[in-house]
Design brief:
The protein is an alpha+beta fold and about 625 residues long. The chain is built from 18 helices and 22 strands. The radius of gyration is 36 Å and the shape is elongated. The structure holds adenosine-5'-diphosphate (ADP) and magnesium ion. Magnesium ion binds near residues 31, 34 and 35.
Length: about 625
């Protein structure tokens, strides 16, 4: 037996490792299993180039728990180490890189801005162990097995051992405060989280299966057979060639990633780049729901098939976090803060590559199967609009395939729609007026009036649309967007000088007073307009600008503005015969009754007549009939 001292450069790092990143102690398992995978892959490489000529045999990595001895063991049948190699790789290289790592990050403890934590490596085992043993035997002919032991001080023991099988067993004697790692379910959970797609088969404990067998007398009985439980899929879809995969394979991989998600993805992109950076992965387009926040952050980030994180913010543009799937890249620096990530050159390149691929895919679909694209539009619309609002480059690409849908479910590109409405909906100031509705039923009466004029009405019905309308207005020269209920139609698209009025100014003033007395307490601004005889006698409108501000303040993202009030206008058509009749009515009671009835009709057409007012209206209507 030989005792030694690990050369300590700065200070004893073990106590620091131990208290490090307390909540992230679990990553020791990822580090140790990755090392076992590396050792196995290296042996395979040696074998394939003829440097190792022995049998490879069963190369599975085994994880086992011994609750009595309080140990957790990670065993591989990889290339192993001889005593010089243990000395070099464990005592010197691994130690000094752990030391370097600790020196670099110890001051960031608790700031929560380190992701990945790659780099601590083998010594992360001391986060959870009071003692660690290595039993290892090199693949080289005639090499002697070695036992190494260290109890978390710079002192270590190294001695020959009787191990006969090639490979390495790492035995962790778990510390008293790390009992949780003796629980099978905890380890299983960690293996499923970090090791689900590692490239070498990993087995953990055993699983009991039942099988019927006949005994000597020919009677059937149940026997249990213990099967090693394989944790991972060593060849996940993203590591395979796109040409080897069928649509079903992508779908079944999606289910493997999200076993609890029922919706099927709409389509997917297989990423595969090896220059100027390495990136593989599969991104899926989910059906984006109105309350999309819950769908976010489902992309899993891997580094050579080792799970790192499922929060990719900072790595891909915000709107892409709506996508699902897997990204795998060894070129994303993972042990740095997120703010650093955003400015990293590789990360920038990767993120603009992904944006480009996503735009390519959408453009492709649009060009090659527009019908299909239109059928999926409602499910991808939020994604595309969000992308256009938040990402300049994506916006430029998406302008070509972004669709507008009208209230009759017809689809147009931005360009097509511009041409469609240009002749009819250009006002006297040469602005092309885009009319839209946010709710086809609630705004039905307004849509109807617009259609009577031969105008087209778009359906923009998602919360993000109030922002999107702003974007469109600034993108399309000489355009203005107005919701159909923002004003009376001939003001929304005003074409001629104002119409003559059938009422004199005095009559109008009188009328305004009477109406005010009837809608006292309901905060409408009353306006008397000279409209067409065929337009309704009264309309409730909601001015575009104030309403848009309110919608946007509700969505957030424009600074806190508090709850903005609704602003309604009660527009009275001076030229309607009924208004003429009201104005001429001398009997005050009859006049007021008529006014109230017409106001209520206007409210009713907007679904704004509720409660007591509705009851009164019904009674009054019955009386009138
Ligand atoms: P890294 O994996 O980044 O090299 P680690 O601290 O995880 O750093 O491991 C240090 C070194 O110890 C490895 O590079 C390898 O040479 C050796 N090593 C660790 N685990 C094993 C193992 N299971 N089999 C063979 N060698 C190993
Ligand atoms: Mg390692």
């Amino acid at each position: 037996m030989q005792k030694g001292n690990i050369k300590v450069q700065t200070e004893n790092i073990f106590p620091i490792i131990k208290k490090f990143l307390y909540s992230d102690h679990e990553i020791f398992l990822r580090e140790l299993v990755s090392n076992a995978v590396d050792a196995t892959q290296k042996l395979k490489t040696l074998s394939s180039v003829g440097e190792y000529q022995g049998e490879l045999g069963d190369l599975r990595i085994e994880i086992s728990l011994d609750a009595k001895a309080k140990t957790l063991t990670i065993s591989d049948k990889g290339l192993g180490m001889n005593s010089e190699e243990v000395e070099k790789y464990i005592n010197q290289i691994a130690f000094s890189s752990a030391e370097e790592w600790v020196a670099k990050y110890k001051n960031q403890e608790g700031k929560g801005n380190i992701i990945g934590h790659f780099g601590l490596g083998f010594y992360s085992s001391f986060m959870v162990s009071k003692k660690v043993e290595i039993f290892t035997k090199s693949y080289r002919d005639g090499s002697e097995a070695v036992r190494w032991e260290c109890d978390g001080t710079p002192e270590y023991i190294i001695e020959p051992h009787t191990k006969t099988q090639r490979g390495t067993d790492i035995v962790l004697h778990l510390a008293d405060d790390s009992d949780e790692f003796l629980e099978e379910s905890r380890i299983l959970g960690l293996l499923k989280k970090y090791c689900k797609f590692l490239p070498v088969e990993i087995v953990f404990g055993t699983q009991k299966n039942y099988q019927k067998e006949k005994d000597e007398k020919g009677e059937e009985k149940d026997v249990t057979i213990e099967v090693p439980r394989v944790i991972n899929n060593p060849k996940p879809a993203w590591t395979q060639k796109p040409s080897d995969l069928k649509q079903e394979d992508y779908l079944s991989f999606y289910r493997e990633l999200y076993p609890t998600t029922f919706d099927e993805p709409l389509f997917n992109i297989h990423l595969n780049v090896d220059y100027p950076f390495n990136l593989t992965g599969i991104l899926y387009f989910p059906k984006v729901k109105q309350n999309f926040e819950i769908q976010r952050n489902k992309i899993q980030l891997y580094c050579n098939q080792v799970f790192v994180t499922d929060s990719v913010e900072g790595i891909v543009p915000d709107f892409l976090t709506l996508l699902h799937g897997v990204l795998d890249s060894p070129d994303i620096p993972l042990n740095v803060s997120r703010s650093y990530l955003q400015s990293d050159g590789n990360v920038k390149k990767i993120s603009s590559h992904i944006t480009k691929k996503v735009a390519d895919k959408l453009e492709d679909l649009f060009k090659n199967s527009r019908e299909d694209f239109e059928a999926k539009w409602d499910d991808i619309k939020i994604f595309i609009e969000y992308g256009m609002i938040s990402d300049e480059k994506f916006k430029e690409r998406a302008k070509k395939f972004c669709l507008l849908k009208n209230v009759d479910n017809k689809f147009f590109t931005l360009e097509e729609y511009g041409l469609h409405i240009k002749t009819n909906q250009t006002d006297r100031n040469k602005k092309v007026v885009y009319l839209y509705a946010s709710h086809a039923d609630e705004q039905h009466s307004f849509i109807d009036i617009a259609k009577e004029r031969g105008y087209d009405v778009l359906l923009l019905n998602t919360p993000i649309d109030s922002h999107f309308v702003n974007l469109l207005e600034s993108e399309i020269p000489d355009s203005s967007f107005v919701r159909v209920d923002a004003d009376v139609i001939d003001k929304l698209i005003s074409k001629e000088e104002e119409m003559p009025s059938k009422l004199s100014q005095e009559e109008k003033d009188e009328l305004t007073k009477s109406i005010e007395s009837q809608v006292n307490g309901e905060s409408y601004t009353i306006v008397i307009n000279n409209m067409s005889e065929t337009d309704p006698p009264m309309i409730i409108t909601q001015p575009e600008f104030l309403r848009r501000m309110k919608d946007m303040s509700q969505l957030g993202g424009m600074g806190y503005m508090g709850q903005l009030p609704d602003n309604y206008m009660l527009v009275v058509n001076a030229n309607h015969s009924l208004i003429g009749k009201i104005s001429a009515e001398k009997d005050a009671e009859a006049r007021n009754k008529l006014i109230r009835q017409v106001v209520d009709l206007a409210l009713l057409s907007r679904n704004m007549l509720k409660g007591e007012k509705l009851t009164e209206f019904i009674k009054r209507s019955v009386d009138l009939i």
